[in-house]
Each structure stands twice: as C-alpha cells, then as structure tokens.
UniProtKB/TrEMBL annotation:
Keyword Phosphoprotein recorded: no
RCC repeats: 427-481, 482-533, 534-583, 585-636, 637-687, 688-740
Species of provenance: Dreissena polymorpha
Extent of Polar residues compositional bias: 350-359
Name under which the protein is recorded: RCC1-like domain-containing protein
PANTHER family referenced in this protein's UniProt entry, alphabetically: BTK-BINDING PROTEIN-RELATED, E3 UBIQUITIN-PROTEIN LIGASE HERC1-RELATED
Limits of the RCC1-like domain: 371-562
UniProt biased composition (Low complexity): 360-370
One Pfam entry name: WD40_RLD
Domain of life: Eukaryota
InterPro entries noted in UniProt: RCC1-like_dom (IPR058923), RCC1/BLIP-II (IPR009091), Reg_chr_condens (IPR000408), Signaling_Regulatory_Domain (IPR051625)
Keywords for this protein: Repeat
Gene3D superfamilies xrefs: Regulator of chromosome condensation 1/beta-lactamase-inhibitor protein II
Disordered: annotated span: 350-370, 946-978
Amino acid sequence: MSLDSNSQLKFSDHYNSKWMLENCKAVSTSTELDALYSRLISNKELVINVPHTIHLKGPIIPDFEADCLATEEHEHLVNALIASQTSLAEIVVSSSPFAQNLKKRLVVLQRIYHATSKQCHIPTVDITENFSSSDNVAWSTQDDNEPKSGNTVLVELGVETGLSLVFALLEQNWQQSVLIGVPSLCDSILSTAINVLVSLKPLSLANESKLTYLGVHALNRTFSFLKSICSSNSETHISARPLASELMITLAAQRGSLKYVLEWVELAVLSLSRLEGANKIRWSLFHDVISKMMKTAGFSALKTNTGADPQCDENGLVPSHLAAVYLLKQLHGLAEDYCLTHLQLLPSSTDSQQANPTPSRSSGISSTQSSVAMDTCDVYIWGSNSTHQLAEGTTERILTPKLSSNFRDSPVVEAGQFCTFLVSKEGYVTACGKGSYGRLGLGDSTNQPLPKKLTFPKDRAIKAISSSKGSDGHTLALSRNGEVFSWGDGDYGKLGHGNNSTQKFPKLIAGLSGIMVKQVSAGFRHSAAVTEDGDLYTWGEGDYGRLGHGDSASKNLPTKVKDLPPLDHVACGSSHTVAVSKDGKTIWSFGSGDAGKLGHGDTCRQYKPKVVDSLTGLVIQKVTCGCHFTLALTNTGQVYVWGSGSVIGCGSPDAIDAKPRLLEDLQTVRVIDIASGDNHCLALTYDNSVFAWGNNAMGQCGQGHSQSPVTRPKRVVGLTKVPIHQISAGTSHSLAWTAVPSDRRLMSLHKVYCVDIQEGTFNVLRSFLERYCQGFVEGAPPTPFTNNQDHEDFLLLCLRMLTVHFRIAQNSVTTSSTLGSQAKPLRNLLFKLVDMATPDHVQEAVCECLSEGTSLLLPSLGERLELLHSLLPQSPNAWNSLSKGQRMQLSMVLSSLQSDGHITVLLGLKQSRTPSLQYVPDLHLTELLMKIILRNLAYETESSLHNLEHDPDPGSVPTADVQPSDPTAPGAGPGSGDLSCPQLQQLLSSIHKHLFAYCTQADHEECERSRYEEVLSLIQCHLSLLLPLSCEVQVKLCLLCACISV
C-alpha cells in the first residue's frame, strides 16, 4: 500500500495491542474511519506534511496561423496537452472526498495489519525446546524411574509376595468357611481393620508425598483387592462383601481423594448382585464416616438440603446404592461451596437464584502476606547459608530444596538480604541470619543461627513482612490493624522515622499513624506503602526519581505521591519503583531507567510515575523488582519481563529488553505467583511446580549445582509431589512452603473429598453418565433405581459434579490435556445427551456442563479443523439436517477458532507452544474451509434477498443488527429468518485479516518466501471467487432496491 508524498507513516509498536483489537469492518463507516484516522494523527503515527504548491501551467501553445508545425511537433504538443490534463485530473480526483476516504481506509487498514503481523505472526520455538536435556536429567533424579538399589528391590519383592500371600489366604479361608458352614475368621480381620481406620486421625493416609512408594503401592493393592470382593457375585464372598464395602469407604475417607470415594460409589451403584444383604451397608458406621469427612472438610455437620436420610431395615442396614447417592449429594454440596468461597462462582444448580458476583482480582503484593490457618506447614530451603539465613547449623550452601526443621509451621516466610523472617499463625515474628545494622530487629548486630522472636508493642500482631534484597538491609512489617514498623539500616531515611539512624528494634513509623496501610515494599535504599484508599507513600533515597515526587530529593518521612489514581500494590527495586492500579489494568514505573528496567523502551530516568504502555490491555496481578529488572504477572498466568541480564530469561546473560516481553518458556504453564531476589527469580505454577532462573552462584536456583547463570526458567528439583503454595526469593537464597495464602484467590486442583482434577475422576463420572443416560422414554428406570425420580436425581448429581470440576479446571488450565483421554468420549457423550429425550432439568444441566467445559472439551487444532469439515454442511440445504447437538458442537468449534492465536497457527503463520494447538498447517484444508464458508454465506445472502423481494416489509427481514435468537434451534438456517451460524462470517473475516496482514509486510526472509507465495496464491484463489460473487449480489441488491422504490 502506497501513500502520497504528503504523508509519512511512523508506526509505534507499543500501540500494537490496541490496534489489534480494531475490526477491519470499522473502515466501512465514515464516523469510525475518521475516529481511527484521527487517532493515528494524535499518536503521531501518521505525519501530514505541508502539501507542495500545485503548478497548473500547461504547455505553451504556438500560434497555428503564423507557424507551420511539422507532424512530429503536432504529436509532441498533443502528448504534452494530454499529460497536462491527466496530471490535472489526477490532482482533482485525489482531492475528491471519495479518494480521501479511500486513502484513509488504506492507511488505517495498513496500521491494523501491521499490528496484527507484529503481535501474532512472530514465530516461536517448538515446545520441546523449552527445557534443555540437562533439565530432564535433573528431574529424573526425583522420579520413580530412578534406578533402584538392590536393597530396595528386595524390600519391594518382600512386600509384593507378602501382600499376594495375605490376599490368597483370605480367599482360601472364605472358601473353606462356605464349605464347612462356619463363620470366616477373615471377617473378624476386616472388622478389626475397619475399627483401626475409624480410630485414626482424619486424613492419616492423605498426603502421599510423605508415604513411601511401597506404602502407596500397598494401599493401592489393598483397595483393588477390596474392589474385587465387593464386585464379586460369588457365594464365597457373601459375608465378606458388606465388610469389604465398609472397609473401602473407610479407607477412601482416610485417603481423602475424591477419586477413591467415587470408586466406592461406582461399586455401590453399578453392582448387580441379587444376593440377600450383599448390597447393604451399616448406616451407623457409614453415617459416622461421612460426618467425619464433612467436619474434616470444614463443615460442622452434614448438609441438610440433600433430602431425607435413607431408610434402614431392622438390622440397621441400608441399600448401598442409596447410601452412595446420599454421599454423592454431600460431596456435590461440598464442591459447590468450595467454588462459592474460593472462586465466587454460581453453583451449578439451576434452581439457584443467587446473582453471579464478579470474581475478585487477587492482590499481588511484594511483601509476604498472611496465610490461612492450617495444622502444619512445611518450608523448603535452598541457596546460601553463609550467615545462617537457612538455620541449618553449618554455613554450607544447599543446592537442592531441603525440608527445614526450624522453619516448620510458619505460614508466612520472607527471604531478605542474608536473613530470613518468619511469621507465626498468632502474628509474632522470628528472624535468623546476618545481624549487621540491626537488620534482624533483635536489638543487636550479631548473626543469629536459629530463629529468635522479635519484640513488638503489645497486641501488635504482624501479617506481612517485606525485607530489602540489597544495600545494607532494612525491613518493613505490616500489622493486622494497618500499622507499619521498620528496622535495620537507616541511611537515606529509608526507615521513615525522620532521620538516618540505624534502628535495631521494630519501631512504629509515626508518619503513617492514623492511615490504614494494606501493603508495603522495601527496596534497596527506599521504601513504599499503599493505603486502603489506594494512596502511595514513598520515602528514602530520591536519586533518579525513584520516589516519584518529580525530583531527586530524599525523604526521611513517608510522603504521598501525587497525581495517581487508587493503587492495588507497589514494588521497589534497587533504584526504581513500579505501581499497579486497583483494577490491574494500568502500571506505572519511575526512577532509574538503566538497562530498560522501567519498560518504556529507553534508558531514561523518570522523576514522576509514567504508564508502561506496552502492557495496555492486560490485567496485572503482581509486579516484583530486582536490581536491573522487573517482572509482571497477568491474571491469565503469563509472565512479562523487562530489564537486563540472565533474569529476563531469554537464554542470554547479556540480553536487554527495554519493553515488556512475554516469558515464552513459561507460556505453556499457568503461573500463579512470582518472586524476585537481587538477581534471580522464582515462579510458582498452578500445579505446584517451582521454576527458577538468574544468578545461581550460591545454588539459589535449586538445580543441584552452582553453575551460573541460569538463563532460562528451569524447574526446581526435589519438589515433586510437594504441594507448594508460596515462594520467596532473597539476595542469595530461596524459600518455598506449603501454606495456602489468604491474599490469593487460590483454588487447588484437589480439594479433600469433593474435588480431584485428574483423568480418573472424569473417567468415573463419564461411566456413570453413559450407563444411566437412557431409560427415560421407556419408563422403567435402570437397575438399581426403583423410580424415575431417583434415576433423574442421580444423573443430575453426576452432571453437576462434572460441571463443578469443569469450572475449577477452567480457572487453572484450559486445554484438553486436563481430561487426558477422556476429552473426546466426554465431548461426544455430552453432545449425544443434547439430542436424547431426557427431562428438562437434565437438558439444562447438560447445556451448563458444556458451557463450563468448552475449552477443556475442545480437541487439538488439527482435530478441530477436521471436526469442522465434518460438521459444516457441504451444501446450504443441509443446514436443516443438523441436530441440535451437532449445531452446538459446530458453534463451539467455530467460536474457539475466533482468537487471533488460533488463526495464525491455522494458517501456519506461527507455531504454537500449547500442546492442544500444535498443528501442521495445510493451506489446502484452509482453502476448502473458506470455500465452504463462502458458499454458505452466499446462500444465506441470496435467501435474505429472496425474502426481501417477496416481503419488502423492513420489520420482517433480518438486518445486520439482528442477532439469532437461538442458532441451535431446530429449523434455524438459511431462509428461516435467523442467521444460520453467525460465527461463519466472523471466522472468514479473521482469516482475511491475518492473510492480508501477512502479505502486506514487505520484509519476508528467504526461508519464508515459499510460505509467502502459498499465502498469496490462496488469497488470489479466494478473491477470484469472492469478487464475482460480491458483484452479483450488488447487482441483485440494486435491482431489488429499484423494484421496491417503484
């Protein structure tokens, strides 16, 4: 696209994210076009030069009467006149309103295409390159695949043979007892086992990370053996079957996982045994077990809104399937309450009238916050212990995470500069490590080898700690009533007490008295605090403008930063500060711009807060700062980094990024927390994995060595199966612990008894649905249900449990890998249920389940494209042949392809790092898809014109502003009065946008030349179909308008 000489384009990449959101259709209306064009000019991306003077003087005309001209002279004169008139015509035409609007359209489209290309068409490395082979070697040392020693093999052999012998003896005794007609001795063994399990503390077998491999294996073998007894129809097990069932549910309660509870439910419901008493369970024992489960899960009693208790017979027994349904109702209630309290989402019940509240954005903070109360908390430590900051006795560095015995049961831990602080559940603080300048707050400057309690004024319970990672060490403490204390080195006034004195005991910052503070951050030589009202106060050294007051003056008292809207939190680095707005949509940085750590694209210092434009459009959950870098975590779990050195994680120790850049090596996981030390970083993912990168000279990256630096994020070894929920990075040591923080709306994938996001859970729920989805039309409910209402209730419970699991998984990971091999059968089953004759409540539950699980049920991109080809009608008349389930599935697939990331992968313009989106592009399939879409849209347009011709009443004809009431309704399609599938036009428009964006970028490397030619050929073929069709439609429309006007 060319511009006239009076205009000059100067596109700025930090506006790309905004231009990406613009729709190309906006250029079709003059109002939107003028607004976009004005934005280009106001952003100085389009510079309009002063137009040159137009010379209208034509060729000199000779006196034909006096002069006799030769033929050649006549021809030259005629050509000169034609050229002059042509030039004049071009000037007139180019200045016409039509030409001016056309130029505007071309410039705006070029800007949108430029943004699209820059944001979406940048190739990325394959996912297998995320981690080096050395990483895999490091991880394998923690896996079960590690070579076993001879002693371990012998012990395993003994356990295996011992279990097999015990099970064989039990079977033999049951058989003999039947033959001789006496009670089996094994029944008393099972009864004893039940009594032992009941007497144990709840969840004694729940934490498998603390059990040996043999212990877990023995539990699994025992559970499988009990399942075989419960599911057996042999008369040999008639007496053992109820006891085995009771032992199974008791054991499942002690293991705490929903998976094991559902396995018992499956046996209780699906068992087809007709033997008297074989399908019953003691209600007293079952009720006690369920009551303990509910209390352990945080409820004082059983839920009362689940219906009446099952009726017992004269022996106190109830049918197992009724007990199973009762249990499933209790678990479903637990799961819904878990969603309401942790995600603030609606329960899956369609009867609920509660409004859907907006999920709160968790407060990302640089100081370590208080956690929920819990009985135990494990703290893992690694890195430098040179001044006893890890409290491990010796001063040897620790290269892999080690469970600390001295930091145990500390729900809040903060790693500082060669020191560590711990906050108890009661709110008192202990410290250990280097004591110079009074940084420990213990009243002296001596090193402290073990945690020692600090003294605070009476009734001052502490909830948050922030300790400096550099300079000479100072610390801020935030009390539960919003007061701020400080101690340590007082240079530059960074303690906020009005002087530069060292403070060896915690001292209240009087300058913040009467102000409720919600978050604090200690930088190297300055400090900051955010109040409950969102005001920012800073104090300490003011060099480079790090305090944000417009100058370089230092402040020894907290001073409010002006001209900022309410803030959520702040982070202080070595000589710069970053603040985040209350809604997370804007972040400001100020101070030293060395190494680009402010994120403005340059190295200039900023004396006042300046918006980081490159993050516009993102919601920032948390920011942290180090010496020469800044990290930002978004609410979608992505990490952006800018600054210099190995800490920016791009593979080079000397790299510099002056603008925020997505940390691609963490793009395939969802990060929920970040932490930064002086020159190394930690990231915590949703599945409790910890990644580290940056300076590793003291082993602070936890890789089992001290080779430094680590230039890409690598998984910290030694934490496999450990439920890590919090992290902290000091100057040269790192901490990770298992307490769940109260400031983060964290939802675990595994909640005791009621939530278990794993393939096995989805497999059991799917088997329930498959077995009991039929029988509503016939009238006779399937065994073991005796009436249709019980049958319907059970099916609804299964669907709602599935919906809750989809909802929780949706808020953690959004790929079909979560469901594993269950994604496809679950997808097919749910869409099959849509077309089946089931009660209305079941239909509503199925639709809600599909709505919650859309992103999880979707297949990979390649399979998605194949599914789309199979579902899309090859002829327009075939729309009416699609069932409601097929329409819903088609709508789901089309909607999933609307995102720019999916379109670029589909066209082969970018490789995907997400496993579900990995796809070998086939432009032939894309061309075929575009033809099918175009054919359907053409038929739909012709049908609309046909309707308009026979019924010219505007109220009876759908317009561009009318949306389909229900595209999945039977009979919806071309000619029915509703759009057949509105996503078709949107998908085709998105494909057009990316194809044109790719081809309009001039600089394609030689290796991409063949791809460029393929894309260009695809565009030409498509336009050869589209343009004649558009002309035909325009002609018909003009004729129709003429007829209507007559």
